[in-house]
């Protein structure tokens, strides 16, 4: 294993130190391990808190800022944040209008966010939750009952964040987050394993010329292994899997996401194939993102996430956002 | 070799097809292989054209847009664009105020941009050039007489692009580009080789636990090989090399750049060490970028680029930019 780290047990703290130095517009509490917008809490605004294991950067801390999250709770690599951390973040960003937890569907995350929500309720902070479970690859998996939460988390954080910024009440912000999740599906393909610093060796082995179809973002097994194939073939496997769960038509929002070790030139090749597939099926990539957004350390591969848009979702997607990882508008 | 491609000889065209589909605000000419701002040429504005081998994405095509480039000419992987391509781009974006070529110092790029500039002069388009040669690792190299051009290309494109947007004349835009280059230095470290699609195997081999210090962005050899070491040790090698060429003091602009296969969490760890180093030496990372910007396909590793700032350079760096790869401001 070769990695740009100082020691296995300081990876998350060292990265947060760098995040704080690079982004003075964030407030990073290294003791409690919470990343805040510098101006949180904003009175009267619903607070948005997400979090999960580290190793998926820029998710989640890279999406803290205007129009998206108020705070993020990074756990250790591929390990849920602890309830105390989530309570700290939630109570700090509660501006009197309640707090939305955006939780990817992994057993540890679900339990710890639930426990934190109960503790926050005891302190008088109202908490609602959106559970993201967009990954159609497997029914249950190593760390999950039900579908896994992956790329659509970005869609939920962006769109719910935009609505919260407009001053919508907690119930509405939660409802639109749930709507985005219901309208979104994802599927991932791995060309290589990731290597966690703690393990020091690849989580799994793939033969030369073999890919894992339906990979999870922690290297959990997918549906099957297959010969590597062309970009077109790999994208078609992913899109057929999405299409089986989410009839594709009209305007869609598309994320072609790199797993962390895949160069951008390959992701644009994949996007060309996704775009062609959508047009063949009477749908349009009306909005898109191509890049490394929901990663799995150094894994090579990609995932496709698609959300079927409404006018309201498009409007909220287009609304201004200013975070380290996503930025547009005035 | 496992890559998300359709065929070795369609990599660049397929990626440009994806770029066009993802970014309707760009105009991508697949025949001539030029990527334009949709509204180019802008009468009275100096046009900015850059280009070079593909495989360094988002450089250069990802930096076409308001406040940066008017056009980019992507060559084949790690291969200079041809003169015809550069002529096409230059004459198309010339708005009557002349065109600046931003050229990385590699022999092929230098020759082809020179030939194109002569052809454009024959057609009455005035062309000036900024030659970027920021990489302090080696004096000459495989593809270069003199220092190589790497990460500072992004600084030159951004800052010269901002000045051109304000309506400055060609001589001033070229002068500020040259000033940025003179004030900038870079140094890279590879943890692994890249693999070009055409070769299908790594360009070079590194032993487990070994890194290449002073790597070039095409996998050209650096200064030496060394044991991998910690992030702190690797960053200190890079910063000591920079410091020997560029006395570090006052406000600096810092790019901690991933080579394409390195996850963001490791780049933030590297940035924390760069920031600490600068502070120890009485300098400040007043502005910074952390991410994959000037890549080398799937290579794992990082480079550090530093530019010593003036008030004017800071102002131009902060000016609005709207490109696929870099975006801020209104």
TrEMBL record, chains A, B:
Residues 7-328 form the DhaK domain. NCBIfam families: dhaK1 (TIGR02363). Coiled coil: none annotated. One of its GO terms (cellular component) is cytosol. Pfam families: Dak1. Transmembrane segments: none annotated. InterPro entries: DhaK_1, DhaK_dom, Dihydroxyacetone_Kinase. The lineage of its organism: Bacteria, Bacillati, Actinomycetota, Actinomycetes, Streptosporangiales. One of its GO terms (biological process) is glycerol catabolic process. Keywords: Kinase, Transferase. PROSITE patterns: DHAK. GO terms for molecular function: glycerone kinase activity. It comes from Spongiactinospora gelatinilytica. This is Dihydroxyacetone kinase subunit DhaK. It comes from the Bacteria.
